[in-house]
Amino acid sequence: MDAILLQILNGLDKGSAYALIALGLTLIFGTLGVVNFAHGALFMIGSFCSVTLSKLFSLSFETVDPTKLDFLGNPSKVTTPYVQAWFGPELGAAIIDWSVPLAILLAIPVMLIVGYVMERGLIKHFYKRAHADQILVTFGLAIVLQEIVKYFFGANPISAPAPEVFRGSLDFGPFFGLEANKVIYPYWRLVYFFFSAGIIAAVFAFLRFTTFGMVVRAGMADRETVGLLGIDIDKRFTVMFGIAAAVAGLAGVMYAPILSPNYQMGMDFLVLSFVVVVVGGMGSLPGAVLAGFLLGILQSFASMNEVKSVIPGIDQIIIYLVAIIILLTRPRGLMGRKGVMEE
């Protein structure tokens, strides 16, 4: 029971990342009809927003402290971060410690701008082109973006630690009547799951309960009719592209303490997330979220040693096997809509 519970928890944080990226992919496809293979790069850029802010907060200067002497008896040099000099030692240290959550404030405008530039500068020219053309151009854009990140940040992963208060682990065993110290789970992974759930709920609430969201949903269902009503649906869809980029970026920001950011991480998550979108059903937002958590949990169970000893390497292919089975039985995916990607 403890192993099952632990694998479910492991699957939830993986599923949270898959669901958030897949949600953004589905938003773009559902509104603009574009298969965006650069979406994983947006996740990667979000992660490096955490790295960037962490490095900015760590910038420091040296001063000579006459009260402290080195081994030669000379006054020692003391390194002080600028943040601590400006805001005081305690508040400055807290700001440095909470750099990853604070990176959300940086990531939102950055991702909105990146999304707007991508859509207006490149992707709008491929709306009426074949999906193969869209895949090729956005895949090429993803490679360009990751090479730019590689140039500025290097090829090696860069750590972005979680706040100190969340660096421990929670013992889940006693909550479920199990033996203590059997189900230990990191606090930050729980934070990531609840953060992801909040973002997903906010996106669905925005689409369902706001006038802007209702118009967007109507445009997704019948773009021409909405346009005939005098509504500039193209501008609203551009905003949705920016929102989808922000969702992917926020997913990357908060995932940075779980997986140290590197320039290839976007491509790794993109392939899996696109499979999630297909399994959930192209154009289906609930399907993308459902499939994300489902496949995340299945991948977690497949990574158990007991399973891998019976079927070696199953953890690497389980998502694709499930995708094949589902698409053979339900060609539109779990919650796919009729007519989407069927031409």
Automatic annotation (TrEMBL):
GO BP term (any one): amino acid transport
Q: Glycoprotein among the record's keywords?
A: no
Name the domain of life. Bacteria
Any single GO CC term annotated in Swiss-Prot or TrEMBL for this entry: plasma membrane
Q: What membrane topology is annotated for this entry?
A: Multi-pass membrane protein
- Which keywords fit this entry according to its UniProt record? Amino-acid transport, Cell membrane, Membrane, Transmembrane, Transmembrane helix, Transport
Recorded hits in InterPro entries, A to Z, give:
ABC_transp_permease (IPR001851), BCAA_transport_permease (IPR052157)
Location relative to the cell: Cell membrane
A Gene Ontology molecular function term for this protein is: transmembrane transporter activity
Ranges annotated as spanning the membrane: 15-35, 42-61, 91-114, 190-216, 237-258, 270-298, 310-328
**Similarity annotation:** Belongs to the binding-protein-dependent transport system permease family. LivHM subfamily.
Protein name (Swiss-Prot/TrEMBL): Inner-membrane translocator
Q: Which organism is it from?
A: Rhodobacter ferrooxidans
